[in-house]
From TrEMBL:
The chain crosses the membrane at residues 57-79, 86-107, 138-158. The keyword Membrane applies. It comes from Gloeobacter kilaueensis (strain ATCC BAA-2537 / CCAP 1431/1 / ULC 316 / JS1). Keywords: Membrane, Transmembrane, Transmembrane helix. InterPro entries: Anthrone_oxy. This is Integral membrane protein.
Length: 162
């Protein structure tokens, strides 16, 4: 399974996974902690703005492009299962697709939507914000770790292809 396109796809998936993992790492290690130190209305307003600005071609291109590459690599791993690198490709693809994309869709986006629906100055907003900080950040840790582990698996697949 050493075709050039497959090696190139795995390299791009490793780069995309690492880049996305780095974004999530930043949020987990200091962005959310900084927002938590603000008064709730300011923290809520800032996060609402972040959630609007993240919907842009550069971020979504890398985030969803890496998911698409992961899907291609998952299929390649299953169709070339006898190859030594197939397990790493499968692992990387599943980590990214389940641990990053699925977790984002199932856990982070619903919390973002709930936060978008509250007025930052409201009591409801303050209650939601306290829960949001805890729950959103927990799921962000999961997707950040999954993205970085996916990058490692893709790197191991590339390493094994030479």
């Amino acid at each position: 399974m050493t075709t050039d396109w497959l090696v190139s796809a795995a390299i791009l998936a490793a780069l995309g996974s690492g880049l996305i993992g780095g974004v999530f790492f930043a949020f987990s290690t200091f962005v959310m902690a900084a927002l938590a130190q603000l008064p709730p209305p300011q923290g809520i307003a800032a996060m609402q703005f972040v959630n609007i600005k993240v919907i842009n071609p550069l971020f979504l291109g890398v985030f969803l492009g890496t998911a698409l590459l992961s899907l291609v690599l998952l299929i390649a791993a299953l169709t070339h299962w006898q190859q030594a690198t197939a397990l790493y490709l499968l692992l990387g693809a599943l980590l990214y697709l389940v641990g990053t994309l699925f977790v984002t869709i199932a856990f982070n986006i619903p919390r973002n939507n709930a936060l978008a629906a509250v007025a930052p100055e409201s009591e409801e907003g303050a209650r939601l914000w306290k829960r949001y900080l805890r729950e959103w950040t927990l799921w962000n840790h999961v997707r950040g770790a999954a993205a970085l582990l996916a990058a490692a698996a893709f790197i191991l697949a590339v390493r094994g292809s030479f």
